[in-house]
Each structure stands twice: as structure tokens, then as C-alpha cells.
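Final report, closing paragraph on structural work. Over the funding period we assembled a curated collection of sequence-structure pairs, and we close with a single example.
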Amino acid sequence: MTSQVDPGFRTHARAVLVLGLPLVGSHLAQFGLHVTDTIMLGWYGVIDLAAGALGATIFFVFFTFGSGYANAVMPMVATSAAAGDEPEVRRATRMGMWLSIGFALLVLPFFLFSAPILAAAGQEAEVSALGGAYLAIVGFGLGPALLVMVLKSYLAALGRTQVVLSVTVSAVFVNIGLNWIFIYGNLGAPEMGVRGAALASVFVQLFTLGVMLAYAVWLPALRRYDLLVRFWRPDWGALRAVNALGLPIGLAMLAETGLFAASAIMMGWLGAHPLAAHSIALEITAMFFMVHMGLSNAATVLVGRARGRRDIDGLRAAARASLILSMGVAVATMLVYFTLGEVMVGAFLAPDNPERAVIVPLGVTLLWVAAIFQLADGGQAMAMGLLRGIQDTKMPMVIAAVSYWLIGIPVSYALAFLAGFEGVGLWFGLVVGLMVAAIALTIRFWRAVGTG
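Its predicted structure, as stored:
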């Protein structure tokens, strides 16, 4: 009996996986940087952990917004490279780097003077002081971190995803070593606590940037792009093009990040135990979401390449394969949440913690709700990646803002507090917002490219 699987689908699915799996690994490794900081600061002290968590959350908001330019570089480079337009590859990447540097310099004063802002926002005095000290140091790492994202996008668009994975994994181990030195004061270094974690983060970003840049500039196969030749020379046309594509991407990503930040604030209104369960469940779902992010990046590149070749049939086929694979990952993740929820949530709490009996069951219930929104969350991430591939970002930004802020958050509030479903209701509101975004974004993509 012959296979009923379309050989064309197998070809495109293989292309998505070859490109996407290293990017999945890279995103997971990037997530590992956050996890190692949390664990090592937790071993050092509760106040330093709280200050580091607060500072890292604020840093991530700015990083998410600023990385919109890197996400714009990816489809632009993929399309230009497929069309054989080498100067356009160089122009888009360099102006993406320019915009990233400019954004980092623009927001640096906030990082330097964040302590009084945190205090005015009602944080405890010691947490405000340490959180401000953390941000004053880590702010200098935002520029290198955003440049790393641009180079990752550039290399991924050119099919060089293995080096992206290797360097990101290496950075995790460098981060562990530098944390051990600077947080705890080993090898003759001063004991710096949360300040040491910030300093380690800056050094890790500089290390990653140095390796990525060396690879991008000196690899013989990439030298023809002359990435840094006359880097100081402005290219206003390319800069406007990258900004027009990247700013809406950054705002859309900020809208989604804000959705989950707002959910944490509302969950805090329900008490410490619901907030703890929410934080644990969100950490687990964020880790699994990295798989969707990697596949979405691969879809952006493959659709962008097909667009550059003017291959509309290939573009549609790559999109279908990407969506089917994303749905498969979502279903597999749902099974994991339903069967291993208690094990995963329990791993975040000590076995003798007396609060386990309250937090674990609530965390497991939230993961069951998260299982329901897997299809929605994976769907909106994939649809957003496909739209970036055809360089459609302004309307997706509007769709994201409306879905998350005008629908998701109000529904969360209504279900949690007005209907009395509390934490479960709040998460069902997230499901609604993500589902609306997934449906609207997917419809927009297929209307733009046709169904073939």
C-alpha cells in the first residue's frame, strides 16, 4: 500500500524542520539563560532573587520591543538573498543594527536612573535599590543583546542556523561560569550578588556578539555580503524600510508580552498562592512556546525566500507545512500538560514545602487550561511568522493589540472577578485573546496569498 502523504508536503516539512529545529534549540538555550540566573540568585538570597527577577522582567520588556528590528531583518534578508540581491541583504542587516543601537542608547537613561522609578512604583526599598543597581549595569547589555538578535536573524535567513544554536548554547555555560564568579565572589572577584548577575549578563552578550560577528564577517561563504564595509555610512532608504517593518513587529510583541504581564498583576490580586501557581505555570508554558517560536522563524525565512523567487505555489506549500507542524507540536504539548502537569509543577517546589498542597493543584489546573490554548498560542505565533515572511506587519500589530488588550484582558477580568472563576477564569480570558488573534492573523495571511 502506497503512502498517502503528499511528497511535496514531506519536502516542505523537512525544510521547516531542518531550519527550525536549531532555532528551537537556540530559543530554549536563550530561555536557559533566564533559568540559570533565577536558580543561582535563588541560592544566593531571597532579596537578590526578587530584585533580579524584577530587573530581568523590565529588561525583557525593552528587549522585546527593540528586537522588532531583528525580526524585520529576517524576512528582508531571506527575500533579498533568494532574489540574488546581495546589496539589499547588506543594507537591511546594517540598518537593522543601526536601529538596534539607536534604540538601546535612547532607553539607556531609564536603566541608569531606574531605582527611584521602582521606588515610586511602590516596590520595597531594598528591592528598589538592588533592582535599580541591576538595571543600571544590565542596561549596557541591551545594545549588544539586540545586535546579537539582528545577527541571528541574518544568519538564520541565510540558512546558518547551526551556528546560532551552538553559540547560544555556549552562552548558557559562559553565563553559569560568570555567575559563579561574580555573584558569589569566586576566583578573587568581589561578591556582588544581583549586581554580579547583571555584570555576567553584559559579558555574556558581548561574548555572543563577538563570536556571531566574527562568524558573519570572516566565513568565506558570507564575505561577499561585506557586512561591515563602510558600516558608519547611513543608508536612509534602508533604515526607513527596516523601521517601517520592525516597529510594528516590536509593538505587536510588546502587546503579547503586556497581556501576560497584566495577567500576573491581576493574579496577584487573588493572593500569593494563585500568583505562585500562575508564575510556575507561565514558566512551563513559556519554555514549550519556544518550540513554536523556532518553527515560526523558520516559516518566516521559507516564505520570505519563496517571495524573493516569486514562487507563490512554493510559498503556500511552505505555509501549509509550517501550520501542520505547529498544530502537531501543539497537540503533543497538550498531551504532556494533561499527563505530566503535576510532575512539572511540583518540580518548582521543595518536597517539604508546606504550601505544595495548595500551589501544585492550582498550577496543574492552570496547565490544563494552557493545554486548551496551545492551538491558539501556536497558531497566532505561526500566523505572525508567516505574515512577517510576506512583510505584512502593520495590520497584524493592530490585530494583536485589539485581540490581547481590548478582548483578552477584559474577558480575563470579567471571568476572574465578575463571574467568580478566579485564576482559571483569568487564564480562559487569555485563551480567548489568543484564539481571536490566531484566527484573524491566519485569515489575513491566506487572503493575502490565496489558497491556491
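The two ends are 29 Å apart (CA to CA). The longest helix spans residues 7-44. We thank the funder for supporting this effort.
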